[in-house]
Amino acid sequence: MAEDDDPVVDEVDVFLAKGLAENLYLFQYPLRPAGIIHDPSKVQAARFKPRHQKVELEVGIDTQSRQYAWSKGEQIALNVDGKGQEASHFGSGVMDKQVLTSTTVPNPASYYAVGMVRDGELHLTPVHGTVQMKPSYTYLDKADMRMKEAAAAADAGESSQDEEEDNPRAVTVRFARPETDETKARRMASYQYLEQQLADEQWVGCTVHGAKGPYAEKERQLLYCRATDFDASHLTRPPKEYLSMLLPEASEDNSEKPAMPSNVLSLSQLKNLSLGDQVKALMTNAKMMSFSQLLALLTSGVDPTAVLRTVQQVAMLVQGNWVVKSDILYPKDTCSPHSGTPAELVCRGRDYVMWRFTQFRFIVRKEVTSIIKLPHEDVKEIFEQLAVVRVNKGWEFLLPHDQDFVDRYPDVVQRQQMLWDAKYSQLSKLLKLAKGDTPKKGKESSHPGQEKETVIVSGQERVKVARQRARSRSQQNDPTSTSAQHSATLTNPAAAKTESADQGEPMDISSGVDNHLGNGELALPVGASSALAADNSGSKPSDELRTEVVRFCGEKLRGNVVLSMSEMKRLLLLRLSQCPPGDVLGKGVSDKLLEQSMFEAGAMQIQLPWPPNSDATPDQQKIFALAHVGDKYDKIREVVLEMFNESFKLRRNVITSKVQEAIGQEPNKHDMEKVLREVCMVKGGQWYLKGTLTS
Prior knowledge:
Layout (H helix, E strand, L loop, with lengths): L12 E4 L8 E4 L14 E7 L4 E7 L9 H12 L15 E8 L8 E6 L2 E6 L2 E8 L1 H24 L19 H8 L2 H10 L3 E3 L7 H7 L18 H8 L20 H4 L4 H12 L1 E2 L1 H7 L6 H8 L3 E4 L2 E4 L1 H4 L13 H17 L2 E2 L1 H8 L3 H11 E4 L3 E4 L5 H6 L1 H21 L25 E2 L1 H19 L5 H4 L20 E2 L34 H18 L1 E3 H14 L12 H10 L3 E3 L11 H4 L1 E3 L8 H10 L8 H12 L5 H11 E4 L2 E4 L6
Parallel strand pairs: 1-7, 2-8
Antiparallel strand pairs: 3-4, 3-9, 4-5, 5-8, 6-7, 10-12, 11-12, 13-15, 14-15, 16-17, 18-20, 19-20, 21-22
Helix pairs in contact: 12-14, 12-16, 19-21, 23-24, 23-25
Pfam families: RPC5, RPC5_C
Protein name: DNA-directed RNA polymerase III subunit RPC5-like
Organism: Branchiostoma belcheri (Amphioxus)
């Protein structure tokens, strides 16, 4: 727009008056019709609480108006004041006044000012606060309270006529616990505490003056600036800075406020923290969450790799989800807030519960309590953090299994599994766990109330089994023992269900898993349907068994791509522990059958040149890999796997050059990264096949 179309009509000098800057309030009446104005002469009383900016006005009601219902007014006054009461709220026997109570407006009052124009000058005074006046009906609460007190007094009078002297009674004395900083912060942030602070502030009586009285005129003069001879017509600041002074940005309130409770986390405050502090604060408050939920709550654009590196410092992986570490919730040299148990013992018990959830979807609280030996309150808190109770099943882990994270970050999952193995070894010593106290992972019942099959073994059978196990161990230690002697299997405990009447307590061994790997064969878990066959058994496996083993090997190879013979045996052993009696895999799986099945499933054997000082067992040195999965990475995967036939470890630039030579073009960085993470693991700038770093 041109200047000719918008000419300057007048110039006005502006002055800032501060005579009433700390005492000027704007009153708003949102429920009052615009055409009705309160007459100041009808205000019978006024009270003010300056610290909380609370105002109360008692405004008279015109009882002679045609709209006034006299019978209703008398009834309300009778209910509130009663009959013949000395202290009355309505002095005239009828409802002749109403109380207006203020509520503070959330918008900043500093955005408003009162302007006065005099002699061509504009004088502005900032508004200190804005309040909205609404009717209050607290006098009705007084009426209800008076009626209840009268009824209680009447009941007490009737019962006291026939009541004898009270007999002595035992009184329980309880001492209040010392208030911690966390408890104090929660108390100060509660609604009850804020209401108590408001009630404790004393009312300051006020006098209402009319707008045209002498006192009002005197106060109105304070709305004008006294020093009008100061000239500030020339700007001494840049225009942008001047505009920012006129419309300042919302500044942070630095006044002292009570700390937020531990279970309340402000996302606006979270953004001001570093990545490590953000992750720690979120995990501490949520106790557990999936990796996708964690990324969604963090600042947008954060690097998932950095988050993954950070979250491992404050949390442990359980069923694909991250659970905050126990020492974060219970720091060293502290005690349980419920029972006073040292934090070290609570952490030990919580770690054991977390470990159990890495093995099972459901666990029984009674079994865990007998092992960790913590007070009831601490055990309840631990379980409520991690699980939810299911009828006839036990406690189920709170979050669903995050298979997507497990598939996307297998190296992290493997590292976390190693940490859990080390943690369990430590817990076994601290909690003095016997081998039968903690069952390994097994198949759980899918129907409520269904229990696992229990095998009862008498005392005589226990002695027999123990002797056979001792004989088996001695044969393993004797180098002259033959393969046939070593492959002798234990008596199947499933056949020993009879219990001698004079023997000790029966033993439940249905969940026990024997992880012993024999000389060329797998030992079945205790309670399985049959022993595994040895290589020299001479019996040909059935087509049904061969087909099932091939299917099993193909399933595990597609999920892991690279597996050693030792790891495949472990997975098969885990599968056997979950199989019901009579499963086809329980008929006997030899090393030869397992190796042939991996070849039939499409795997290739990597002739890895192991270093001379390697401590890997023969089964660990047999590496099988599935190069062709049926995706676009098959060619790159095949080249990478074949390179390990020539070298135990490789550098990335060497791998990239070889792949480029094989496919005739520079490989995509994303494709290379995916394949390398899928089949290898990196250490010290060198890439190794998965499962080959045994130390």
